[in-house]
């Protein structure tokens, strides 16, 4: 389904506007992003066109109306993001990843296992973060838990008129062709300024781990968060994770012929984070 109000825009910008429009429909916190503020008028025009397409009157904000509008916006996004599968694979073979706005976002079941019913509240913000991030970092990953794959981390700040409700969403997942499989999404409430550099992702993960991390041992390295470019990986990572059932553990590494490569891990105290998340959202 095409939106006439977006016909003059490039696919990335158009997809970002549709994602932000969907986010406004479901947000209960009056959250706004910098992207939203810059595109306020056209987002309003898109929502008006969606109402026309769905036959929904202006001023109807019932749950049924919101669901219909969300479906229309999703169809518009699918149309914009349709890509040639062969071209996608060629792009991946060349550089290992696609532009973030081209990914189809798929939520792993563990999102719902961890968040319960509240997991559904995060879907619009997760999609907006992947398709229009403030920062992103990509790894060619080999991990004990995920086998082989391509790991990516995206982050996006959502600004609220109340400073205490402003947060940055961190999304972690695996790239699989044109799909991005979301393994985890974490909110970081606190002051953070994006610089546009790769280091933004590492810096915000460090801050998040200080609040919700739990110490783990990986190959002699100790802590809730670790990232180094050139370490001795060897043949065995020797994982030691305390209280494993309460820990959400993320790991990525590479290993060359000499047994060296990068090592990244994050260990999250699930109960502590979920208790905090539910308190913020109830």
How do you describe this structure in short?
With 282 residues, this protein is α+β, with helices and mostly antiparallel strands. It has 9 helices and 11 strands. The protein has 2 domains: 82 residues, no CATH class; 195 residues, no CATH class.
Question: Explain this structure to me?
Answer:
The protein is α+β, with helices and mostly antiparallel strands and about 280 residues long. Strands 1-5-4-3-2 form a five-stranded mixed beta sheet. Strands 7-6-9 form a three-stranded antiparallel beta sheet, with no helix packed on it. The protein starts with 10 loop residues before the first helix and ends with a helix. The protein is globular. α1 packs across α3, α1 packs antiparallel against α7 and α3 packs across α4. It folds into two domains: about 1-80, no CATH class; about 85-280, no CATH class. The chain has helices at about 10-25, 35-40, 40-55, 65-80, 85-95, 110-115, 125-130, 200-210, 270-280, and strands at about 105, 135-145, 145-160, 165-175, 180-190, 215-220, 220-225, 225-230, 240, 245-255, 260-270. The longest helix is centred in the first third of the chain and has 18 residues, at about 65-80. A hairpin with a 2-residue loop joins β6 and β7 (about 220-225).
